[in-house]
Amino acid sequence: MLTVDFRIFPLLYTDRLILRQIFAGDVNEIISLRSNKEAMKYIDKPLIESENDALQFIQKITDGVNNYEAITWAITHQNNDLLIGTIGFWKIDKEHHRAEIGYMLHPAYQNKGIMQEALSAVLNYGFNAMQIHSVEANINPANEASKKFLEKNKFIQEAYFRENFYYNGQFLDSAIFSLLAPV
């Protein structure tokens, strides 16, 4: 069985980025990110519209880390601690050494290779430090940019579920991609 321990939160560094823990001090950036209709277009979750909503969201992330059930990093530039996106593993399946990855970047920072750097660092941590065997990504099939991003990173579509997700009064489809640990 997979053992995860986030008592010391892992900081991850890339050429341009620092991936760090999310704190209550990130509340305004979380509101900016999760209330942005373009950023949330394919997330299929309610927009965060208030400071209270954002603080509850941050608490949920913190609880996941403290309970060793999930880990989410704030994506920041090395020269600026401002949260510009998030990336992390949630739904960590310890028995089967599998985790679902989720990521989001504010539209002002997209198409600059930032998410590629963040994903590489997080996958390296997941496969090597956490000993995850496989990573799953569950996306809205209409999100072509995410699909291309995953395929570029050698994720393979495993499944397509029709109308398996109910949100905002309608049933939506899901596409599941996965990546196995390198051998």
Jot down its keywords.
alpha+beta, Aminopeptidase, 8 strands
Description:
The protein contains four helices and eight strands. It has 183 residues and is α+β, with helices and mostly antiparallel strands. The protein has one domain (12-180): Gcn5-related N-acetyltransferase (GNAT) (Aminopeptidase, 3-Layer(aba) Sandwich), CATH 3.40.630.30. The protein has an eight-stranded mixed beta sheet, with helices on both faces. The chain is globular. It starts with 11 loop residues before the first strand and ends with a strand.
Annotate the secondary structure layout:
Elements: E1 12-13, E2 17-21, H1 27-34, H2 51-66, E3 71-77, E4 80-93, E5 98-105, H3 114-129, E6 134-139, H4 144-152, E7 156-167, E8 170-180
Parallel strand pairs: 5-6
Antiparallel strand pairs: 1-2, 2-3, 3-4, 4-5, 6-8, 7-8
Helix pairs in contact: 1-2
Write the CATH homologous superfamily. Answer: Gcn5-related N-acetyltransferase (GNAT)
**Radius of gyration in whole Å, from Cα?**
16 Å
Q: What's the architecture, going by CATH?
A: 3-Layer(aba) Sandwich
Q: Give the biggest sheet.
A: 8 strands, mixed
Q: What's the CATH first level?
A: Alpha Beta
Overview in brief:
With 183 residues, this protein is an alpha+beta fold. The chain has 4 helices and 8 strands.
